[in-house]
Write a structure and sequence with these properties.
The complex is a heterodimer. By secondary structure, chain A is α+β, with helices and mostly antiparallel strands. In chain A, 34% of the residues lie in helices and 16% in strands. Chain A has two domains: 76 residues, Beta-grasp domain (Ubiquitin-like (UB roll), Roll), CATH 3.10.20.30; 69 residues, Orthogonal Bundle (DNA polymerase, domain 1), CATH 1.10.150.120. Chain A has a five-stranded mixed β-sheet, with helices on both faces. In chain B, 35% of the residues lie in helices and 24% in strands. Chain B is α+β, with helices and mostly antiparallel strands. In chain B, the strands form four sheets. Chain B has a five-stranded antiparallel β-sheet. Chain B has a four-stranded antiparallel β-sheet with strand order 11-12-13-14. Chain B has eleven helices and 14 strands. The chains are: A alpha+beta, B alpha+beta. Chains A and B meet through strand 4, helix 3 and helix 4 of A and strand 1, helix 2 and helix 6 of B. Chain A: This is Carbon-monoxide dehydrogenase small subunit. Chain A: InterPro entries: 2Fe-2S-bd, 2Fe-2S-bd_dom_sf, 2Fe-2S_ferredoxin-like_sf, 2Fe-2S_ferredoxin-type, 2Fe2S_fd_BS, Beta-grasp_dom_sf, Diverse_Oxidoreductases. Chain A: One of its GO terms (molecular function) is oxidoreductase activity.
Chain lengths: 161, 291
């Protein structure tokens, strides 16, 4: 009974239908079945934040969900934020402020920051740091990441600036 | 770091969930938000034969404000409990505590019922259930029951829930009008489990403390109500000496663990400091509300 079963969802706007084992994590589904390797896998127990994606408009750890649970859901991965030639404002802010070094944590940082910007005022650096505290950067390049998120949050508050 | 194979059933009613649990005869686990369960599956600390997914059951994600209590559905996510205007207004101590639970991505998924059923001894929601004299409603093949939060938490990750029983709703008692409240937590990093946390509600009647509730988490086998401290406070005028005595009663009561994050002595020290601070804040707030 733990055989494969059909799961349907949209990933970055495209409908997807695949047969998967129930135990397949959403993170492995995205990377191995769909080939969307932008979602990174670090700890696989919900601590590092590298696999953060959007599920129906809010962030979730893709390593703490099974692909079968995403039946009917709208999934957005870092690939859905913007292509290299048309970066999203948040990605642009990360580039401007050198918000990445090796890039391993970056997809999770971007997905997390987007959700934070949408849900919290992020009026202070303390609030930004607290919001990002569930995403680990082993390069420890947090200063630049905070600067990038600060700029993106500010731009969202005052679009003309 | 991959789960062992399991069968998966997404149910759309409480009845279907109960039927699946009964059929599995103790070999099933319920998954809601999955924020504690899935790590345990990934580590293979748990290897259930069946995962019963209750996320699609309608009607379990709600907040109902009643005169004496606030009923919250088991599938209500932490982020909703953190931000819902009706909770911020009527149970602000709960909203404040929920903001300290893990990280946004976890709060987006984690549920009230899941946190109480998981019963981590350092989690915030079990402490809130105790603080607010919650009544926990369950469904089971024999019809379900209501369990007082005081009788619910039996030990680390252990509750009074039977294997065929599903937590469906929690009724938090509303503190009396004019009550003061406070919640304070110390964790190594933002979003980590508490090394210690304390929460207080109380009101002032003719300048004396009435209905003091003092709850703690992270400092014993389960979250707890500090009964001896409450008895000291009840009917007394608030003041530094009284609060110091209450903090001392708490330090004597708690039995914290030593682990790599903190020693038992440090946790006991924190318990006293946090109880004193929360009492000061709650009393000041109750006094302000009466002025």
């Amino acid at each position: 009974m733990s055989g494969k079963r059909l799961v349907r969802m949209t990933v970055n706007g495209s409908p997807v239908e695949e047969a998967v084992e129930p135990r397949l994590l959403l993170s492995d589904f995205l990377r191995q079945v769909l080939g969307l390797t932008g979602t990174h896998v670090g700890c696989e127990h919900g601590v590092c934040g590298a696999c953060t994606v959007r599920v129906d408009g809010s962030t979730a750890r893709a390593c703490l969900m099974f692909a079968v649970q995403a039946e009917g859901c709208r999934i957005v991965t870092v690939e859905g934020l913007g292509p290299a030639e048309a970066l999203s404002p948040l990605q642009e802010a990360f580039r401007e402020h050198h918000g990445l070094q090796c890039g391993f944590c970056t997809p999770g940082m971007l997905m997390t920051a987007l959700d934070l910007i949408e849900k919290y005022p992020l009026a202070s650096d303390a609030e930004i740091r607290e919001g990002l505290s569930g995403n680990l950067c082993r390069c420890t390049g947090y200063e630049h990441i905070v600067a990038a998120v600060r700029a993106a949050a500010q731009r969202r508050r005052e679009p003309s600036s | 770091m991959k789960p062992a194979a399991f069968d998966y059933l997404a149910v759309e009613s409480v009845e279907a969930a109960l039927e699946a649990l009964a059929r599995a005869g103790g070999e099933a686990k319920i998954v809601a938000g999955g924020q504690s369960l899935v790590p345990m599956l990934n580590f293979r600390l748990l290897q259930p034969a069946l995962l019963v997914d209750i996320n699609r059951i309608p009607g379990l994600d709600f907040i109902a404000v009643e005169p004496a209590r606030i009923r919250v559905g088991a599938l209500t996510r932490h982020h909703r409990q953190e931000t819902a205007p009706e909770l911020r207004e009527h149970l602000p101590v709960l909203s404040a505590a929920m903001a300290e639970v893990a990280h946004l991505a976890i709060r987006n998924r984690g549920t009230l019922g899941g946190s109480l059923s998981h019963a981590d001894p350092a989690a915030e929601l079990p402490m809130m259930a105790l603080l607010l004299d919650a009544e926990i409603a369950t469904a089971s093949p024999s019809g379900g029951r209501r369990i007082a939060a005081r009788d619910f938490f039996l030990g680390p990750l252990a509750t009074g829930l039977a294997e065929d029983e599903l937590l469906i709703e929690v009724a938090f008692a509303r503190p009396a009008a004019g009550s003061g409240w406070a919640f304070e937590e110390v964790a190594r990093r933002s979003g980590d489990f508490a090394l210690a946390a304390a929460a207080v509600t109380l009101r002032l009647q003719d300048g004396r403390i009435a209905e003091p509730h003092v709850a703690l988490t992270g400092v014993d086998e389960t979250p707890l109500r500090a009964g001896a401290a409450e008895a000291l406070l009840d009917g007394e005028a608030p003041g530094a000496e009284l609060f110091a005595a209450a903090a001392e009663a708490v330090r004597r009561r708690v039995q914290p663990n030593t682990d790599l994050h903190a020693s038992a002595d440090y946790r006991r020290h924190l318990a006293g400091v946090l109880v004193r601070r929360t009492l000061e804040k709650a009393a000041a707030q109750a006094a302000g509300g009466r002025a």
